[in-house]
Amino acid sequence: MSEPLTLIIADDHPLFLKGLADVLRGAAGLSVVGQASDGESALALIEARRPRLAVLDVAMPGLGGLEVARTVRSRNLPVEIVLLTMHDEPEILERAMEVGVRGYVLKDTAAADILACLNYVAAGKTYVSPGLAHHLVRRRAAAPPPADDLAALTPVERRVLALIARDRTSPQIAAELGIRGKTVENHRSNICKKLGVTGPNALVRYALTHRHHLA
């Protein structure tokens, strides 16, 4: 028998939190290992319990779900984030995608969507509630077609870009590929020139947008 999928959940509305916990606890293959009512507590649970997934409300006292997601990525914690929101907010969806959030669920449809979302995210896929999917389609349509640009990269450059999409820092990439940090920086510079991306974090945004083409 496979290990259950561990997760923590966080929401500052007690009734919603209880209802969500009841749905998740009743699902086979899932194990809720912690609950929180604010972002700081959620982050502490993630660090202490190291769950596979964290289901977080976007708007919570202190740190919101998006801020927790950014902190998780900056600390390289091995957890996938699913965000819950009350509203159709394309701007927040954009920011969530940029920091590597894989699941984005409307609270109005959470009872119906959450289990499918968790299965998608656990499998390394992205899930967005159907009510928000049109924003994701528009986002992908606006992104530059990657095929020809990516074909210009060497195998090592493509590997570096794939690791950037997984939120790896230059020192982490150097260690993983067995090369010097200066070599990684040279690769990043060459990738930017070939892809025509400029500006702070532009390469990271490109990598996240096209990460499905880099697998």
| CATH superfamily (homologous) name of the largest domain | Response regulator
Strand order of the largest sheet: 2-1-3-4-5-6
Mean pLDDT: 85
Shape: elongated
Biggest sheet features: 6 strands, parallel
Q: Unreliable segments (pLDDT under 50, ≥5 consecutive)?
A: none
Helix-strand category: alpha/beta
Measured distance between first and last alpha carbons: 28 Å
CATH topology of the largest domain: Rossmann fold
The tally of domains stands at 2
CATH class of the largest domain equals Alpha Beta
CA gyration radius, whole angstroms: 18 Å
Number of strands: 6
Work out the helicity level. Answer: 40-55%
Summarize the structure.
The protein has 11 helices and 6 strands.
Could you walk me through the main structural features you see in this protein, from its secondary elements to its overall organization?
The chain has 11 helices and 6 strands. It has 215 residues and is an alpha/beta fold. It has 2 domains: 5-141, 3-Layer(aba) Sandwich (Rossmann fold); 147-213, Arc Repressor Mutant, subunit A (Orthogonal Bundle). A 6-stranded parallel beta sheet has the order 2-1-3-4-5-6, with helices on both faces. Helix 2 runs parallel beside helix 3, helix 8 crosses helix 10 (181-195) and helix 8 crosses helix 11 (202-209). The longest helix is centred in the C-terminal third of the chain and has 15 residues, at 181-195. The model has no long low-confidence stretch (mean pLDDT 85).
Topology (elements, then pairings):
Elements: E1 5-10, H1 14-25, E2 30-36, H2 39-49, E3 53-57, H3 65-74, E4 80-85, H4 90-98, E5 103-106, H5 110-122, E6 127-128, H6 133-142, H7 147-151, H8 155-165, H9 170-177, H10 181-195, H11 202-209
Parallel strand pairs: 1-2, 1-3, 3-4, 4-5, 5-6
Helix pairs in contact: 2-3, 8-10, 8-11, 9-10
